Amino acid sequence: MDELLVDRRDDGVAVLTLNRPDRRNAMTDGMTTRWRLAIADLAADRDLRCVVVTGAGNAFSSGGDLSWLAERAAEGVPALRDRMLGFYRTWLAIADLEVPTIAAVNGAAVGAGLCLALACDLVYAAEEAKLLVPFTSLGLHPGMAATYLLSRVAGVGVAREMLLTGRTLTGAEAAPAGLVTRAFPRESLMDEVMGIASRTAANAPVATRLTKIALAGGGHADLDAALRWESLAQPVTMISADMLEGLAAQRERRLPRFGNA
């Protein structure tokens, strides 16, 4: 079984599907290796416009494969630290892609699985999907940047409640809490997400990539930092072929046909 499916669409959208439904898409060593290669391939693709991540079956991802934990205690902290840091950086490399990334949380997103979703630019969840980070109930400190990602996305209050008490949120509860962008009925989730991905992919690639950079890490530190960035980034797009095409399309009342970034 291919543990990661990669579907490249003609509109510039790539869909990555975690494909171990029998294990609720746990992040095995094999899947981690496939993910590393796939992300490297996508990063080098100039035709790429948007990436969607989802899970096969009824789960998004149950997180890291914990079957090896009981056998690893004898390795010692340095070896475990190196192993975990490599695991974290491999999966969170999706945040380094220059194009917009979208998580379609079709079912349970647990621990590292939820963190993978939160590392994407946009997160859409099935209304009944369960989102949780049960590290401390397993005797573990949170990993996969959970202490950063939950606080950044939903605020420290939500992060504290989920990480300290183990509270589980459904997709419907997570949307008003700010943990996910929006929630949809499960049966319409992928249609909604693919429509959003297609519209995103149709936008001007240079402007889109620069905008993603501007919003990275929660946006600029202050108003002046935003103005200094925009006074440089906007002129870059003003002299691009994309802007000329966008204006021509508006004038001619047609859809724009943007080139590659």
TrEMBL record:
Bilayer-crossing regions: none
Highest taxon of source: Bacteria
Keywords: Lyase
UniProt cross-references to PROSITE patterns, sorted A to Z: ENOYL_COA_HYDRATASE
InterPro entries: ClpP/crotonase-like_dom_sf, Enoyl-CoA_hyd/isom_CS, Enoyl-CoA_hydra/iso, Enoyl-CoA_hydra_C
One Pfam family hit: ECH_1
Protein name as annotated: Enoyl-CoA hydratase/isomerase family protein
Naturally occurring in which organism (per UniProt): Streptosporangium vulgare
Lineage: Bacteria, Bacillati, Actinomycetota, Actinomycetes, Streptosporangiales
